[in-house]
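Why run this: before we spend reagent on co-expression, it is cheaper to look at a predicted model of the complex and decide which construct boundaries make sense. The entries below are exactly what would go into the expression plan.
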Amino acid sequence: MKTLFALILSLFVFQAQAEIEYRDFKQPEQEQAYQTLISELRCLVCQNQTIADSNADLAKDLRRQVYEMLQQGKSRQDIVDFMTDRYGDFVMYKPALKLKTMLLWLGPVLFLVIGLATVWVLRSKTSTSEDQSLTKEQQAKLNSILEKGDHS
Amino acid sequence: MKYLLPLLLFIALSVFLAIGLKLNPREIPSPLIDKPAPAFNLPILATPEQRLSQADFKGKVWLLNVWASWCVSCREEHPLLIELAKQNKVLLVGLNYKDEAQAANTWLSKHGNPYNVSVMDADGRTGIDYGVYGVPETFVIDKRGVVRYKHTGPVQPGELESIFLPLIEKLKAESA
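The model came back. Tokens follow.
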């Protein structure tokens, strides 16, 4: 029974990683850099995937490019520059913090501030309306109700 | 008056969404515009023993059209390129991208060859240098070898007249 269950479960195992290419690295740091880079670069054909996730031809070519540049001893920044020079900022999955992308980065904070301000304004409005004190007659009625109970 | 602010917010949101609908997420602005065309030195499709580089076109206004025999939308664009070639107004260079020479030659003889010359980028490295991500792509390059315009995807009917031909005329008038 357990084996059967495990077999059925195994049908639902999907790998997000595209086909695994054999890459030979001299140092583990280089491999680490490779893995990080390919999961940060966008596959422009299938825009919502990184080149690590995608099996598109272009993604394969870009993985090869990253690998070769690392082998040539290029730094992470060299590779990022190489890609953005050709494909623009959009190739980075996480956009760079620039004047042009400021709205993108600060947008959520901006909306939070707007939301909090709205809540604050609405709250202060309702609390002033609650603050309105009772008229004399109302107060007298309230007192009598509290003392004798409601007979009206 | 009470509803003025929500109404204004709604209108602003609608405008943003309407603009968003019109944008094409496939159009990624090319960082190559106004930069020198990336260098290549590639074998000619018809005569692979000869090679061409981007420097060979110095002093001329030329189009670099990225195409492949496996590319379906290239078929869509093809009649327009044939038409452009007939007008003989501009040098049309083909970049045969990640293709096999035989398949490419067969494709050209079957559908017609609008290119003055095609070069072979079999492993797609020149494609990477040009930031190619969606074949077909068309680059307009001026006399000094600077990329002036990039079009991603098939050129649509009417775009020759509205975009390409006026730009070509303008660039031809510039001094080398």
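Chain B has a mean pLDDT of 92. Residues 32-173 of chain B form a domain with the Glutaredoxin fold (CATH 3.40.30.10). Bring this page to Monday's planning discussion.
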